[in-house]
Amino acid sequence: MTTAAPFGRLLTAMVTPFTKDGEIDWAGIETIAAHLVATGHDGIVVNGTTGEAPTTKSSEKEEIIRVVRNTVGSKIIVVSGAGDNETEYSINQAKRTENAGADGLLVVTPYYNKPPQAGIEAHFRAVADATDLPVMIYDIPGRTGVPIEPDTIVRLSEHPKIVALKDAKGDVASTSWVIKRCGIPVYSGDDILNLPLLSVGAVGFVSVCGHTVGNDLRELLDAWFAGNSARALEIHQKLLPVYTGTFRTQGAILTKAALTLMGLPGGHTRLPLVDATDAQIAQLREDLRAGGVAVN
Question: Which positions are catalytic?
Fold first, then answer.
């Protein structure tokens, strides 16, 4: 039996395009959101890592939700990041996210503090209790400094509002055991592990490369769930240059550069991120073309 995918199967964590002077390019947000819809997405995640959430104000986050919602309509799921390393702030952000019209919350492990598992569990429960929105917890120890341990995930999966896990742990064996033990719907949060995670029971992707290869990822998912694993593997191997190339430096930096190469409004970054160099763009162009992406 296939596990249900509560947020759809293909979502991308969308960039937030900025102008050269650091203002949000609202028309650019509309264009990118429409592009994602046109390339087979079930949902869009805003205000996450790739959206440069650490450098956007709460008021900007709310407006991003509203603009994306107005652009994509009611049939496309809009999930918004609401996690922080302070629980009270995360609760407040979750409430503002709900009021702004999002369909769900993406909540990352508290970062920098390095809380114990008891603190991590209490944090997620407090945020989940704060609104009526379904929650996708986000395990990315490479950024947060501490993993959500399997026992903690299993306990959290019993919470009625915690309905999914975005997995960027890079440990397929550990995730396999989590899925076996509790069946929580898992979304791959690391593009190069999309197919491996599907093979152990993941239900879909929260992608970054969906900005550039959304149609391919849609086909990969459709092939996999139709039982055509050979085709899914063929697409996976085709996309390896894109997966690798997008993360030669921080993902938002090169995704914005990639969108610009595709003629879309990728825009600029906000400090402490910096725009891609000419050399990085030249390498990215090669990587994208090797993966079948048409770029300038």
Answer: 138, 166
